[in-house]
Amino acid sequence: MDQIPFQEALAAFPSSRGRTLADLSNEAPVLVVFLRHGGCPFCREVLAQLQSLSAELTKRGLQLAIVHMMEPQQASQLLARYQLQDVHAFSDPERKLYELFQVKRGTLSEVAGPAIWWSGFKTTILSGHLPGIPGKDVQQLGAALILDKGQIVASHFSQNSADQPDWDQLLACELPPH
């Protein structure tokens, strides 16, 4: 992947709906969300947040794309649970898009250390985002970014498994007119 230029790589990976990130970001700005593994309660919390943000995304003229490491059928079931079945989903079990966007993998303490336990308790028990079967890479962290015309204009890269984007701050970025 290091040899492929960024713009070329954006055009190389089609979504579940047959569109690439290059296609989408040339059409309108895209909120690209990189999920951790599908069994992660923090991942499920992000999906619930995205579900509640859907009207705000539309209002701001943002498309939503979700990058995940699951098999397409498993992802479809999980996204449907959060009424996100119509978004552009990118199945990336080999983590090529994660690497392209430099979404880091966490250390054991960043993924499941004591600092994560309280957040995990709140997310799992208090908010009801129960974990599922762990996915391919439990060390993969998440990210959210806004891609416009092939350029990253705002981003949040998680520093640990519980680190969630500040959606208001991320969505407040200035977007050039299309």
TrEMBL record:
GO terms for molecular function: antioxidant activity; oxidoreductase activity. Residues 1-176 form the Thioredoxin domain. Coiled coil: none annotated. Pfam families: AhpC-TSA (PF00578). NCBIfam families: SelL_rel_redox. This is Redoxin domain-containing protein.
